[in-house]
Amino acid sequence: MASENVVVERAPARVPRWLRALLGLLGVASAMALLALGWSRTGAPLTVSVDGRRHDLRTHAATVEDALRQAGIALYPEDQVLPPLEAALEPGVAIQVQRARPVAVRADGQTQQLRTHALTVGACLAEAGVGVGPGDEIWLGQDQVRLDTPLFGAAPTGRQVSYRGGLRAEASAAGGEPPVIALRRAANLVLQDGDARRTMHTTATTVGQVLEEHGVRLYLGDEIQPGLQVAVSAGMTVTIQRSVPVEIVADGHTLRTRTLAGTIAGLLGQEGVALMGKDQVEPGLSDPVRAGMQIQVTRVREDLVVEFDNIPFKTVWVADPELEIDNTRLVQSGQPGINKRRYRVVYEDGHEVSRFLEDSWAEQPPITKTLAYGTQIVVRTLDTPDGPIEYWRKMRVYTTSYKPSSAGKPKTHPRYGYTRLGIYLRKGIVAVDPTVIPLKTMMYVPGYGIAKAGDTGGGVKGKFVDLGFSDNDYESWHWWTDIYLLTPVPPRSQIRWTLPDYPNFPDRRR
Q: How many domains is the chain partitioned into structurally?
């Protein structure tokens, strides 16, 4: 059978409707962007100068106002524009904008906010309709200035920017607070200083400030009416009554002062010089005060005397698990405190006659001394004549010896020879202080052997071990000995970590 050739033709793929719509929108947007770019590049050239800064741009505006609006330059009514805003825009024209600057003027209880082209403080005040009188103070910010003081510093230079968004940004870049001009009105007052009379202009708020401002020197004892803290009011009169100079000699010192007092007693009262007992004053208390006179005071003298003594410091112990048992470490040095007492001592003709305790206080508290004691237990092995032993603590103790017949009970006593634990006394049973070595503790005593803490005694206190013997094998012991507490290690609650200092017999080795 002859084969047949079959030809299959595929239909073209169909583009989705939404994709065709999207491609159409993108084409329209691209066309509009190209048109806008062409439109901006076909505008007429224009130069705009804002406060001396030049900007070159292109525009299709018909008037100066339209061109500035398109450039994003906002104007205030006080701003100056040449040519005028309504002028028709011609190719190549140069528009000049001189901005008015904001200023605040405070005067006579009111604040005006204005924009001005004034160059000096005086011109700005005149523009605001504010007059300046004699003695009035003019303040620009925090500085006192004159009428001819420049209102602004150097004009802002800004940055040179391109038209695309830059001119609009620069036009709104005037930052910072506007300058504030404050006018303080001067008041007129009359100063009557003795026989001298004069008129003063001032912006000060109190009488004291007025006198200081005008260099009026005051002396101790001068009387000023009204007082120095009284508020100034227009037309007021200030009167100064001058005091006279005098000297007071008392307690080895000479006090030079001035006074309005009429008598010596009044003068001493003014200066707070107290008279007690048989104090003497020359001239007398009732004598009148004269300029340049000297008053001599002879009186009993009182002194304050401060004494101190040390306050002993305390010592505390803290556990240190990193430090081996029976070792100590200084954590904090102790320092004595200081306790002070203040006495009032009375002298007559330079001799002490009495003293009184006025006050006592701790000037410096003591600093507690802190010592750390070791709580780390290390088990070790020791070879002895009796064989190796395993111990957890080595302790230096004072050893003595006893036997049943020396234990304080007669042989007829039912408890004769029995220990605290009810064991009959023999070698290998020792008496201990149970607060230091718990009963039933096993230990090794060199030269004595293995022993058990099985007894106590009235005189066995602290690091004291009384070695037991029977009546037949008694040996006398009276010396310091190293003993070894054998394992197992007792519970930590039964271990006395710091050993007492008793007994304090000399440690003489055998």
A: 5
Looking at the structure, tell me whether residues 308 and 213 fall in a common domain.
Answer: no
Which of 392, 357, 391 is closest to 377 using CA atoms? 392
Q: What is the value of pTM for the model shown?
A: 0.41
CATH number at residue 205: 3.10.20.90
The answer to whether residues 248 and 268 touch, using CB atoms and an 8 Å cutoff, is yes
108 in a domain, yes or no? Answer: no
- Please report whether residue 483 resides in a domain: yes
Q: Supply the CATH number for residue 472's domain.
A: 2.40.40.10
* Tens digit of pLDDT at every position of the chain (510 positions): 444 443 334 445 565 666 666 666 775 555 454 444 444 455 678 788 888 888 777 787 878 888 888 878 888 888 888 888 888 887 778 888 888 889 999 888 888 888 998 889 888 888 888 888 887 889 888 888 888 899 886 444 433 333 333 333 333 334 568 889 998 887 888 898 888 888 888 888 898 888 888 888 888 778 888 888 888 888 888 988 888 899 998 887 898 888 888 899 998 888 888 887 778 889 988 999 998 899 988 877 778 898 888 989 999 999 999 999 999 999 999 999 999 999 998 877 677 888 889 898 888 899 999 999 999 999 999 999 989 999 999 999 999 999 999 888 898 898 998 999 999 999 999 999 999 999 999 999 999 999 999 999 989 999 999 999 999 999 999 999 999 999 999 999 999 999 999 998 887 665
Do 268 and 237 belong together in one domain? no
User: At 477, which amino acid appears?
Assistant: W
- In a shared domain, residues 226 and 271: no
- Give the SS3 label for residue 230: coil
Range of the domain at 199: 187-241
| 109 DSSP 8-state letter | T
Same domain, 331 and 362: yes
CA-wise closest residue to 69 among 168, 195, 183, 217: 168
Query: Would you report the helix, strand and coil content of the chain in percent, each value rounded to 5?
Result: 15, 40, 45
Can you give the length of the chain in residues?
510
Q: Which two tokens stand for residue 430?
A: 């020792």
The reply to whether 489 and 429 lie within a common domain is yes
Residue type, 36: A
Residue 393 lies in a domain: yes
For residue 224, what are its two tokens?
């000023």
